[in-house]
What we know:
It contains 8 helices and 10 strands.
Amino acid sequence: MPAQDQNDLISRIESWPDFPIEEAHKLNRNRWSDINSPNAQKFSHREPEEDIINFFDNFGSVIQAPLLDLGCAGGHNLEVAYKRGIFPLYGVDISSAFVSDALARVPSAEVRAGDMKNLPYEDNYFRTIVARGVFHLTTANGLLVVLGEANRVMTSSGILYVMVRHLPDEDEKPRVRKFDEGNKFTYLVYENPLSENPNQNPIMVRNYVQNQENLREILLYSGFKILEMGNAKQNPERNRKGIYTVCEKIF
């Protein structure tokens, strides 16, 4: 795509009124802070999804260690890597509640709590990063920040796997609304339908990039070349769909 079009999208994102990134991440962290909650238990004990298995199967020749699972939850994606003999493995999650479960699943991994906008790792270290279902858990401007952090900690020609939800699902629409009409991507998520309680406080913040072309432009701007992109089921049990992308760091 023309570089001018790419820069236009980034300029628009940077100019949009947006929810504060720090506050957004705090809300999202609190959502997962109780490991005994049904929401956390679902992610702590889930099995790997088809798209991540396909990534390891189809790109095994270029997936190399060290590998970081960004937003590792209970370690289900780390387990896929471990079973394929990839070592060393690292996992990081915004909620410390997941650390012990991920280590129980893959004891040889190094897992810690941390925020994807300020990753606790040195520059140019990871040769592969898996970021499945995590980059939409920030704001529109936050997406540029967290992709910049992923780029920072990744080696040249490293491989990045991304899967994001790009639109609100039908069953969620009564509980979400745009943060601001001038911002096309950032949405606030609520516990109950807004028709029932329009004055409730949000429980989460997400960005929805809307389509593959927008995601492609954002990734290219962030220094990643697209190797493969397509549709994925983010949560088949609830028919939630997303976009998956396999990228290579080019600058």
